[in-house]
Design brief:
By secondary structure, this protein is mainly α. It has helices at 2-24, 29-43, 49-72, 76-81, 83-107, 112-123, 127-136, 143-165, 202-222, 224-234, 237-257, 262-272, 279-304, 307-312, 314-338, 343-352, 358-369, 375-390, 392-406, 408-412, 433-444, 456-464, 477-482, 498-511, 524-533, 543-555, 561-585, 596-603, 607-624; strands spanning 176-177, 183-184, 426-429, 449-453, 470-471, 490-493, 516-521, 537-540. The strands form two sheets. Strands 5-4-3-6-7-8 form a six-stranded parallel β-sheet, sandwiched between helices. It has a two-stranded antiparallel ribbon with strand order 1-2. The relative contact order is 0.09.
């Protein structure tokens, strides 16, 4: 008991110290957990390999829970919408990298099972480190950032079949098929495990396995809702947590009964529950356990890294790490170019994914325990993966240097439009100073907005303050339709470019005659053009602020606040009515001086006389009162 408490205290203490330091240095939590494991294992020797190995079976549930949460976040319809990038970018990266590593490993004399394992392990990149770094640097919505995310998502999904396929390359001594065609499973740690397929003929084992997967699919589809309602009736919050854990642990147990990966079952269950009304409840209940157990897994991996391997032949290990990063970067560079990435986006895509990833640790652990690779090769692979992940901050520094040399103009051309995943009653095209104020006011009143802008820096700045926006040209029909033009109530045109604003208003009015369009204008000429294009309300960007300034002047030269406000309102309504009348007489391309009806109406304005008459009437009313 004392030993268990001692080990738990050591693990928790180092995690509490190392992970926040790593996060503050911008290295991410994964490297913090690895550093904690290295510190208490190889460096200080506070935890031995035996203690770490005993805890590994519990820590692996962190991986299972992580895959369950990944499944919860993957709506099948969203995956289908992203199929081009997932299959194209992601599939090519995994396939080409895995194949290149496989060929190189076999070329130096290793057997096929080791080559396949190395190809799978090195094809993956670090989801945790890359996504966190892209988010912190505001690069997630750039062309390179979106493409990197698609590849990482594909890799996360690919881990599932990898975990299923990898044991098939195990030593034949571990899995035997008897003369009668029945399957005899290997002993696990010297004791007999529960199995529903042991002793069955091949066809029988296949049927039982398919039946178990089918049962999990049906259960996830039809049983979770009534079970959650039953739990809800108890009105005990801890029962939700118990049910969430039961789903994960129970599915993992059922999959182990048929010899399949627990991660595969929980991933499938997560995908089935992705559209469930209980999805967010499951996420909030599982996330703390996932975080702690996954952190424990990485600490154990760090504690088991054998640095004697590095000390025995540091040059060889360094060559493998550098060679791996160079090989992946070369493949990523050409894939990115083939899919239209250029400039800074291409370099971001190339350098951000060139390292190995945390799921490589999962595959290495599986490969060694299943005797796919020898223990000593597993130790080398752990070291290579860890060192490549530690190099990731350096890769982003290299990207920053390249980015500064290329400059902003080159990057502007390489951004690809965002995939809009939400709609709202108000679409705001343009998020400069004018659009920001409109957006803040509308959202503060409780209404959702969809913000579109072609300025990547403006979108990134908004995201740093927690305001979501989508990068892309608002004048493109596909962008507007994706933003919900067909169902929107109001379109706000707040763009800087006068020509683009007029084009946008014209298109929106043709598509939606009933849509209310509020447009920003620089001057009267643009007001007339926007009115002619079909805008309902047109706001001159300096008009209202000038009115307020004029009201302050009137208040400080003798008028009361009421009189100044009345003068302001009178001027506003008169000017608006006059502009509407003049807009009907204005002709595009014809100078005002050559448009007699326009000039005649403009000369009819006698604003000062009307203002004074209005003020006199108000004063007489006050005196009579």
């Amino acid at each position: 008991m004392e030993q268990a408490l001692y080990t738990a205290s050591i693990f928790l203490l180092t995690a509490v110290i190392a992970v926040p330091i790593s996060a503050r240095l911008g290295l991410g939590s994964v490297l913090g957990y690895l550093a904690a494991g290295i510190l208490i294992g190889p460096v200080l020797g506070l935890v031995g390999t035996n203690e770490a190995g005993e805890l590994l079976h519990y820590a692996e549930f962190g991986v299972v829970m992580m895959l369950f949460l990944i499944g919860l976040e993957l709506d099948p319809r969203a995956l289908w919408a992203m199929r081009d990038k997932l299959i194209g970018l992601g599939g090519l990266q995994i396939g080409l990298t895995g194949l290149a590593v496989l060929v190189l490993v076999m070329a130096v004399g290793y057997p096929i099972n080791i080559a396949v394992a190395c190809g799978m392990i090195f094809a993956l990149s670090s989801t945790a480190i890359v996504l966190q770094t892209l988010t912190e640097k505001g690069l997630m919505q750039t062309g390179g950032g979106r493409s990197a995310f698609a590849v990482l998502l594909t890799q996360d999904i690919a881990v599932i079949p990898m975990l299923v396929i990898l044991p098939l390359f195990a030593d034949t001594a571990l899995t035997k098929i008897s003369a009668d065609g029945s399957i005899k499973l290997a002993q696990d740690h010297g004791h007999e495990g529960l199995s529903l397929v042991q002793g069955l003929p091949g066809w029988g084992a296949a049927l039982v396995t398919l039946g178990m997967v089918f049962a999990i699919v049906i259960g996830g589809r039809y049983l979770t809702r009534p079970v959650f309602r039953f739990i809800h009736a108890a009105r005990l919050p801890e029962m939700y947590t118990a049910l969430a854990l039961l789903i994960v642990v129970g599915i993992a147990f059922l999959m182990s009964l048929v010899g399949l990966s627990a991660a595969l079952g929980t991933f499938l269950a997560g995908m089935l529950l992705a559209n469930s009304e209980f999805r967010h409840e499951l996420e909030s209940d599982i996330a703390p356990f996932k975080g702690l157990l996954l952190g424990l897994f990485f600490i154990i991996v760090g504690a088991q890294i054998n640095f004697d391997v590095l000390l025995r032949d540091p040059l060889r290990i360094a060559e493998i790490v550098v060679g791996l990063i160079a090989l992946k970067a070369l493949i990523l560079f050409f894939i990115g170019r083939a899919f239209g990435l250029r400039g800074r986006s291409q370099w971001l895509f190339t350098l951000s994914l060139a390292q190995a990833g945390e799921f490589g640790f999962v595959l290495i652990t599986t490969a060694t325990t299943q005797n796919v690779i020898p223990q000593w090769i597993g130790e080398e692979l752990l070291l290579v993966v860890a060192l490549s992940m530690l190099v990731t901050p350096l890769l982003f520094i290299i990207y920053d240097v390249i980015s500064r040399r290329i400059g902003d103009k080159a990057d502007t051309k390489t951004h690809t439009p965002d995939e809009i995943d939400e709609t709202g009653p108000v679409i705001i095209a343009g998020i400069g100073r004018f659009g920001q104020i409109v957006n803040r006011l509308v959202r503060s009143a409780g209404f959702n907005t969809v913000v579109l802008d072609h300025n990547m820096q403006a979108i990134e700045t908004m995201r740093r303050f927690g305001v979501k926006g989508f990068f892309g040209d608002p004048t493109r029909p596909e962008m507007l339709h994706a933003a919900g033009l067909a169902k929107a109530h109001v379109l706000v045109v707040a763009m800087d470019d006068p020509e683009a604003a007029v084009r946008l208003v014209s298109f929106a009015r043709r598509e939606r005659p009933d849509l209310h369009i509020v447009a920003r204008a620089r001057d009267r000429t643009q007001v007339f053009r926007l009115y002619d294009a079909g805008a309902n309300d047109i706001v001159r960007e300096m008009f209202d602020s000038s009115l307020r300034a004029g009201r302050y002047v009137l208040e400080n030269i003798g008028l009361s606040e009421y009189e100044a406000a009345l003068a302001e309102q009178t001027f506003f309504h008169h000017d608006r009515d006059a502009v509407q009348e003049l807009a009907q007489l204005w002709k595009d391309g014809v100078p005002s001086s050559q448009n007699p009806p326009y000039m005649a109406r403009a000369l009819e304005e006698e604003l000062e006389t009307m203002l004074m008459a209005q003020l006199d009437e108000e004063k007489d009313d006050d005196q009579q009162a």
